[in-house]
Specification:
This protein has helices at about 15-20, 55-70, 90-100, 105-125, 140-145, 150, 170-185, 210-220, 235-245, 250-255, 260-270; strands at about 10, 75, 130-135, 160, 190-195, 225-230. It has about 270 residues and is α/β, with parallel strands linked by helices. The protein has a single domain (about 50-80, about 100-270), classed as Alpha-Beta Barrel (TIM Barrel), CATH 3.20.20. The protein has a 6-stranded parallel sheet. α7 links the parallel β4 and β5 (about 190-195).
Protein backbone atom coordinates (compact mmCIF):
# COMPACT_ATOMS: atom_id res chain seq x y z
CA UNK A 1 0.00 0.00 0.00
CA UNK A 2 1.61 3.31 -1.06
CA UNK A 3 1.69 6.20 1.43
CA UNK A 4 -1.47 8.32 1.52
CA UNK A 5 -1.67 12.04 2.21
CA UNK A 6 -4.46 11.64 4.77
CA UNK A 7 -3.23 8.56 6.62
CA UNK A 8 -0.23 7.86 8.84
CA UNK A 9 2.16 5.23 7.49
CA UNK A 10 3.03 2.14 9.53
CA UNK A 11 6.46 0.64 8.83
CA UNK A 12 7.92 -2.57 10.25
CA UNK A 13 11.70 -2.32 9.91
CA UNK A 14 13.31 -5.64 10.83
CA UNK A 15 10.25 -7.89 10.90
CA UNK A 16 10.08 -8.47 7.15
CA UNK A 17 8.96 -11.83 5.79
CA UNK A 18 9.47 -10.91 2.14
CA UNK A 19 13.02 -9.63 2.59
CA UNK A 20 13.87 -12.62 4.78
CA UNK A 21 12.63 -14.95 2.06
CA UNK A 22 14.66 -13.12 -0.59
CA UNK A 23 17.76 -12.80 1.63
CA UNK A 24 17.77 -15.74 4.07
CA UNK A 25 21.37 -14.92 4.96
CA UNK A 26 20.11 -11.66 6.52
CA UNK A 27 18.04 -13.44 9.17
CA UNK A 28 19.01 -12.77 12.80
CA UNK A 29 21.03 -15.53 14.51
CA UNK A 30 21.31 -16.79 18.09
CA UNK A 31 22.52 -19.81 20.11
CA UNK A 32 18.90 -21.02 20.03
CA UNK A 33 18.67 -20.72 16.28
CA UNK A 34 17.64 -18.09 13.72
CA UNK A 35 14.61 -15.83 14.13
CA UNK A 36 12.31 -17.55 11.66
CA UNK A 37 8.64 -17.60 12.65
CA UNK A 38 8.95 -21.38 12.92
CA UNK A 39 11.52 -21.18 15.74
CA UNK A 40 9.45 -21.87 18.85
CA UNK A 41 12.27 -20.80 21.16
CA UNK A 42 11.16 -17.20 20.59
CA UNK A 43 7.90 -15.27 20.46
CA UNK A 44 8.56 -13.77 17.04
CA UNK A 45 5.48 -12.82 15.01
CA UNK A 46 7.35 -12.69 11.71
CA UNK A 47 10.79 -13.45 10.27
CA UNK A 48 13.20 -10.97 11.84
CA UNK A 49 16.30 -9.63 10.11
CA UNK A 50 19.66 -8.89 11.71
CA UNK A 51 19.65 -5.49 13.41
CA UNK A 52 23.00 -4.50 11.85
CA UNK A 53 22.40 -5.63 8.25
CA UNK A 54 23.84 -2.59 6.39
CA UNK A 55 21.97 -2.84 3.08
CA UNK A 56 18.62 -3.23 4.79
CA UNK A 57 19.27 -0.40 7.22
CA UNK A 58 20.23 1.99 4.42
CA UNK A 59 17.26 1.00 2.26
CA UNK A 60 14.85 1.44 5.16
CA UNK A 61 16.19 4.90 5.99
CA UNK A 62 15.52 6.11 2.45
CA UNK A 63 12.15 4.37 2.31
CA UNK A 64 10.98 5.79 5.63
CA UNK A 65 11.99 9.32 4.66
CA UNK A 66 10.13 9.01 1.35
CA UNK A 67 7.04 7.64 3.10
CA UNK A 68 7.17 10.49 5.62
CA UNK A 69 7.25 13.08 2.84
CA UNK A 70 4.08 11.62 1.32
CA UNK A 71 2.02 11.09 4.49
CA UNK A 72 1.27 12.94 7.75
CA UNK A 73 3.92 10.93 9.56
CA UNK A 74 5.39 7.52 10.34
CA UNK A 75 4.55 4.98 13.03
CA UNK A 76 7.31 2.38 13.40
CA UNK A 77 7.36 -1.14 14.76
CA UNK A 78 9.90 -3.97 14.80
CA UNK A 79 12.71 -1.52 15.50
CA UNK A 80 14.83 -3.82 17.66
CA UNK A 81 16.79 -7.05 18.00
CA UNK A 82 14.65 -10.14 17.50
CA UNK A 83 14.82 -11.40 21.10
CA UNK A 84 17.25 -12.28 23.88
CA UNK A 85 20.49 -13.78 22.56
CA UNK A 86 20.26 -12.05 19.17
CA UNK A 87 22.16 -11.39 17.04
CA UNK A 88 25.25 -13.61 16.97
CA UNK A 89 26.05 -13.48 13.27
CA UNK A 90 29.76 -12.89 12.48
CA UNK A 91 29.15 -9.20 11.72
CA UNK A 92 27.37 -8.56 15.03
CA UNK A 93 30.01 -10.40 17.02
CA UNK A 94 32.74 -8.36 15.36
CA UNK A 95 30.90 -5.07 15.92
CA UNK A 96 30.33 -5.95 19.56
CA UNK A 97 33.99 -6.87 20.05
CA UNK A 98 35.17 -3.60 18.49
CA UNK A 99 32.76 -1.50 20.57
CA UNK A 100 34.40 -2.34 23.90
CA UNK A 101 30.93 -2.36 25.48
CA UNK A 102 29.10 -5.06 27.36
CA UNK A 103 26.75 -7.22 25.28
CA UNK A 104 23.62 -5.46 26.57
CA UNK A 105 25.07 -1.97 26.22
CA UNK A 106 26.24 -2.67 22.67
CA UNK A 107 22.77 -3.86 21.65
CA UNK A 108 21.23 -0.81 23.32
CA UNK A 109 23.56 1.50 21.42
CA UNK A 110 22.78 -0.17 18.08
CA UNK A 111 19.04 0.29 18.54
CA UNK A 112 19.28 3.85 19.85
CA UNK A 113 21.75 5.04 17.21
CA UNK A 114 19.64 3.67 14.37
CA UNK A 115 16.47 5.20 15.79
CA UNK A 116 18.31 8.51 16.00
CA UNK A 117 19.01 8.27 12.27
CA UNK A 118 15.38 7.42 11.52
CA UNK A 119 14.14 10.24 13.72
CA UNK A 120 16.36 12.71 11.89
CA UNK A 121 14.93 11.58 8.55
CA UNK A 122 11.30 11.91 9.66
CA UNK A 123 11.28 14.82 12.10
CA UNK A 124 14.14 16.99 10.86
CA UNK A 125 14.18 16.38 7.11
CA UNK A 126 10.58 15.54 6.28
CA UNK A 127 9.19 17.63 9.17
CA UNK A 128 6.58 15.01 10.00
CA UNK A 129 5.26 13.28 13.09
CA UNK A 130 7.26 10.30 14.33
CA UNK A 131 5.94 7.54 16.60
CA UNK A 132 8.00 4.60 17.88
CA UNK A 133 6.16 1.34 18.58
CA UNK A 134 7.30 -1.14 21.21
CA UNK A 135 6.14 -4.51 22.50
CA UNK A 136 4.24 -4.72 25.83
CA UNK A 137 7.20 -5.53 28.08
CA UNK A 138 7.90 -2.64 30.46
CA UNK A 139 10.48 -4.58 32.49
CA UNK A 140 12.74 -6.66 30.21
CA UNK A 141 12.82 -4.74 26.92
CA UNK A 142 16.49 -3.83 27.37
CA UNK A 143 17.58 -7.43 27.92
CA UNK A 144 15.27 -8.90 25.27
CA UNK A 145 15.34 -6.29 22.51
CA UNK A 146 18.05 -3.72 23.22
CA UNK A 147 15.41 -1.06 23.89
CA UNK A 148 15.95 1.74 26.40
CA UNK A 149 12.82 3.85 26.80
CA UNK A 150 14.88 6.71 28.24
CA UNK A 151 17.11 6.68 25.15
CA UNK A 152 14.18 6.66 22.74
CA UNK A 153 12.00 9.26 24.46
CA UNK A 154 13.88 12.31 23.08
CA UNK A 155 13.80 10.82 19.57
CA UNK A 156 10.05 10.34 19.20
CA UNK A 157 6.93 12.48 19.32
CA UNK A 158 4.87 9.69 20.88
CA UNK A 159 5.10 6.01 21.79
CA UNK A 160 2.80 3.18 20.72
CA UNK A 161 2.54 0.00 22.80
CA UNK A 162 1.08 -2.96 20.92
CA UNK A 163 -1.34 -4.84 23.18
CA UNK A 164 -2.84 -7.35 20.77
CA UNK A 165 -4.83 -10.26 22.18
CA UNK A 166 -7.69 -12.48 21.07
CA UNK A 167 -9.27 -11.97 24.49
CA UNK A 168 -9.54 -8.98 26.84
CA UNK A 169 -11.83 -10.62 29.39
CA UNK A 170 -9.46 -9.63 32.23
CA UNK A 171 -8.87 -5.91 31.62
CA UNK A 172 -6.98 -5.43 34.87
CA UNK A 173 -3.76 -6.80 33.33
CA UNK A 174 -3.91 -4.43 30.37
CA UNK A 175 -4.78 -1.51 32.62
CA UNK A 176 -1.72 -2.36 34.72
CA UNK A 177 0.51 -2.40 31.64
CA UNK A 178 -0.88 0.94 30.53
CA UNK A 179 -0.20 2.47 33.92
CA UNK A 180 3.34 1.08 33.94
CA UNK A 181 4.21 2.41 30.50
CA UNK A 182 2.69 5.80 31.33
CA UNK A 183 5.11 6.04 34.24
CA UNK A 184 8.09 4.94 32.12
CA UNK A 185 7.36 7.30 29.23
CA UNK A 186 7.00 10.33 31.51
CA UNK A 187 5.99 13.33 29.37
CA UNK A 188 5.91 11.47 26.03
CA UNK A 189 2.40 10.57 24.90
CA UNK A 190 1.34 6.94 25.22
CA UNK A 191 -0.81 5.25 22.60
CA UNK A 192 -1.95 1.64 22.85
CA UNK A 193 -3.10 -0.66 20.04
CA UNK A 194 -5.93 -3.14 20.64
CA UNK A 195 -6.94 -6.12 18.52
CA UNK A 196 -10.40 -6.16 16.93
CA UNK A 197 -10.19 -8.46 13.90
CA UNK A 198 -7.15 -9.83 12.08
CA UNK A 199 -6.52 -11.55 8.73
CA UNK A 200 -8.30 -14.90 8.48
CA UNK A 201 -9.84 -14.70 11.93
CA UNK A 202 -12.89 -16.71 12.91
CA UNK A 203 -15.50 -14.21 14.16
CA UNK A 204 -16.09 -16.43 17.20
CA UNK A 205 -12.43 -16.16 18.22
CA UNK A 206 -11.91 -12.39 18.32
CA UNK A 207 -12.41 -10.08 21.31
CA UNK A 208 -16.00 -9.24 22.16
CA UNK A 209 -16.94 -5.58 21.58
CA UNK A 210 -17.95 -5.31 25.24
CA UNK A 211 -14.43 -6.35 26.28
CA UNK A 212 -12.88 -3.71 24.04
CA UNK A 213 -15.23 -1.00 25.27
CA UNK A 214 -14.50 -1.79 28.91
CA UNK A 215 -10.75 -2.03 28.41
CA UNK A 216 -10.65 1.22 26.43
CA UNK A 217 -12.22 3.11 29.32
CA UNK A 218 -9.97 1.46 31.90
CA UNK A 219 -6.84 2.07 29.81
CA UNK A 220 -7.91 5.66 29.32
CA UNK A 221 -8.20 6.24 33.05
CA UNK A 222 -4.79 4.59 33.52
CA UNK A 223 -3.15 7.17 31.28
CA UNK A 224 -3.45 6.13 27.63
CA UNK A 225 -3.44 9.25 25.47
CA UNK A 226 -4.69 7.46 22.37
CA UNK A 227 -6.10 4.07 21.34
CA UNK A 228 -5.72 2.37 17.96
CA UNK A 229 -8.02 -0.48 16.95
CA UNK A 230 -6.69 -3.12 14.54
CA UNK A 231 -8.90 -4.64 11.86
CA UNK A 232 -7.98 -6.34 8.61
CA UNK A 233 -10.63 -4.54 6.54
CA UNK A 234 -12.47 -1.23 6.67
CA UNK A 235 -15.80 -3.05 6.93
CA UNK A 236 -14.64 -4.67 10.17
CA UNK A 237 -13.90 -1.37 11.88
CA UNK A 238 -17.34 -0.21 10.75
CA UNK A 239 -18.92 -3.31 12.31
CA UNK A 240 -16.97 -2.70 15.50
CA UNK A 241 -18.08 0.93 15.68
CA UNK A 242 -21.70 -0.09 15.22
CA UNK A 243 -21.37 -2.74 17.94
CA UNK A 244 -19.92 -0.14 20.32
CA UNK A 245 -22.75 2.28 19.60
CA UNK A 246 -25.26 -0.50 20.26
CA UNK A 247 -23.76 -1.15 23.74
CA UNK A 248 -25.78 1.71 25.26
CA UNK A 249 -26.29 0.06 28.64
CA UNK A 250 -22.61 -0.83 29.00
CA UNK A 251 -21.48 2.66 28.08
CA UNK A 252 -23.89 4.10 30.62
CA UNK A 253 -22.49 1.78 33.29
CA UNK A 254 -18.92 2.80 32.48
CA UNK A 255 -19.65 6.47 33.20
CA UNK A 256 -18.66 5.80 36.81
CA UNK A 257 -15.25 4.41 35.81
CA UNK A 258 -13.52 7.77 35.51
CA UNK A 259 -12.72 8.31 31.83
CA UNK A 260 -15.48 10.29 30.16
CA UNK A 261 -13.13 11.21 27.29
CA UNK A 262 -13.22 7.67 25.89
CA UNK A 263 -16.99 7.47 26.28
CA UNK A 264 -17.38 10.79 24.48
CA UNK A 265 -15.23 9.40 21.69
CA UNK A 266 -17.48 6.36 21.41
CA UNK A 267 -20.55 8.61 21.43
CA UNK A 268 -19.14 10.48 18.42
CA UNK A 269 -19.44 7.25 16.45
CA UNK A 270 -23.23 7.51 16.64
CA UNK A 271 -23.13 10.00 13.77
CA UNK A 272 -20.83 7.75 11.72
CA UNK A 273 -22.91 4.58 11.86
CA UNK A 274 -26.34 6.16 11.41
Amino acid sequence: LPPMSDMYSNVAIFGDNVTARNHPDWISQSPLGPSWRTNDNFNVRWDVLCQTQPEHRAEQLDYIEDVARHSPGVWLNSIHFAEHGHCTCPRCKELWKKSGLSWLEWRRKEVTDYMREVSERVRDRAKKKFVIGVLPDPVSSLERFGISFDDLAPLTDEFLVVMFSKNYATPWYWEMLTRGFKKLFKDVKLNIALYVFGPGDNPSEVPAPSELVTLSVRAGRAGADGILYLTDKASQIWDFQKAVVDRVELREKLKTYGCQEVLDFFASWEKIVE
